[in-house]
Amino acid sequence: MQINTFGKIIDIEEALSFFQDDMVLMFGGFGGIGNPPTLIKGILEKGVKNLTLIGNDTGFPDVGIGQLVTAKRVRKMVTTHIGSNPNAGKQMTDGTLDIEFSPQGTFIERVRAGGVGLGGVLVDIGIDSVIDINKQRVTVLGKEYLVETPLTADVSIVYAKKADPFGNLVFDKSARNSNPYVAMAGNITIVEVDEIVPLGALEPEEIIVPGAFVHYIVQSEGVDWKWVWEK
């Protein structure tokens, strides 16, 4: 039996107490891969609404974080693209979903900046484009940059392959994607994991996120991807 040495391992019911209407929620994942399925399912079932979501994309209509968009639980998104979820596009066009686009590289740097406490990052991507709206410009060594503000959230939700009781995390291949950066940028970080292993079972070299960034750990119920894609 796994010993909850650091008090970080909680059940899904306790985890859901951290999700409330009107909150800012950051999530890991890319096109649904790396989205935490059990936590997202719980948020849907709890009925949380008016969310501001921060994440790479809006997923697919019935996959991952896209389910929250489809259910119209989101009022604003800070994201890199919405092309894989037509429901997001329709809601944006209808004016019911506010979208703040950020180029993918810039986006992840903004998340990283939030996680490590930087005041922002300077980029030359997007000058004089739709990205350059009401943004401060600075000149450094004769070159002009946009000031991109850091991204943080009330709660970050992360999906990992393994965690020990301290919250050290190992990821599964491409499901690693943005999850390590997202884990750093939440005031509270909740990680959903496929397997909780004893302290000392993880090799130091395979740990991607140190447990210092993780507040709580939830055992994943998994997801039937075959059913999702057939749907």
TrEMBL record:
Transmembrane segments: none annotated. The keyword Coiled coil does not apply. Keywords: Transferase. One of its GO terms (molecular function) is CoA-transferase activity. It comes from the Bacteria. The keyword Ligase does not apply. SUPFAM superfamilies: NagB/RpiA/CoA transferase-like. This is Acyl CoA:acetate/3-ketoacid CoA transferase subunit alpha. It comes from Gottfriedia solisilvae.
